[in-house]
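New to this. Comment on this protein:
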Amino acid sequence: MALFDLPLDELRTYRSASAEPEDFDSFWAKTLQEARDHELAARFEPVDTPLKTVTVHDVTFAGFGGHPIKGWLTVPAWANSPLPTVVEFIGYGGGRGLPHTHLLWASAGFAHFVMDTRGQASAWGGGETPDPVGSAPAFPGFMTRGIEDPETYYYRRLFTDAVRAVEAARSHPLVDAARVAALGGSQGGGITIAVGALVPDLAAVAPDVPFLCDFPRATVLTDRTPYREIGNYLKTHRGRTEQVRRTLSYFDGVHFAARGRAPALFSAALEDQTCPPSTVFAAFNAWANEDKEIEVYDFNDHEGGGPYQQAAQLRWLPARV
C-alpha cells in the first residue's frame, strides 16, 4: 500500500475533530480513586532463569477493581541501588511473554517493568492475566467489550491497570521513582499516551505508532482490525453510533495528549493502515509538553521503525531519565 493518508506537511498541522467529554477529568479521577481504594499489594517474586546478566521478578499487583495483574521486572544483575526505569505496555492481542524476550532495557542499564494485558495474550506472546469482568454482546476482539457505556468499557480497566503498573514499579527498591518513563507500541503506545496524562510526574513517554487515537477519523479511514471491530459492531447494532462515539471519547488518545506533561518521543509510519498516520499526528500535535519529537518512517506500514525506533529511543531516553 502506497501513501493513503494526508501529505506529510498536512499531517504536521492536522487536528482531530474528536469532541472531549465535559466530565473527562472527573471520570478518570473517580476511576483511579476507586482503584486506589484497593491496596496495591505489589509482590515481586524472584524467578530462576538461565539468564546471567539480568535478574527477573514475577510481579503481581492489584489493578482495576483490585483484580490481580501480572508483569515482569527485569534489572541488570549488577544493580544494587535505584535505577532509571522503563514501564512498557504491550500491543493488541499480546501479553508479557517469557522473561528472555525482554532484555533490551536492562541491557542498557535500566530497570524494566512490562505489564501483562488483562484478557489478551492469546494472539501472540502469551500471558497469565484474566479479565474477570463480562460485557454485553460484543464483536470478537476487545474494542467493543462494554462499549455501551464508558463505565463498562474494556479500556477503562486496562488504562487503570497501566496507571497501577507505574505505581507498582515505583514501589520496588531498585526503581528510582523520580526517573520512570513509559513506552509501548501500537496498543501499548495508546496506553502510554493515557498513562502520560493520568500519571502527572513521569520523566518521559515514548508512544510508538500508537493505537487508540482520534477515533472519529480512525474508524472511518481504515478497514483493518482492530479499528474495524467497531464498524462491524455498528453494522449489526444499528442506531448506536452516537452512543459508541460518546464512550470512545473518554478513551481517545487525543484528549489524554492534551494533558501530557512529560517529554515525548512519538513515531508514525506513513503507510500504516492499522494506526493511520493522521491519527498518530492528531495525538502528537495535541501533546501539551513542547519538548516532543516524532520519528517518521515514510515507506513503512504498522511495523514502523522497528529496531530503528528502538535505537532512537535508546539515544533519546537517557537524557530525560
Q: What stands out?
A: DSSP finds eleven helices and nine strands in the chain.
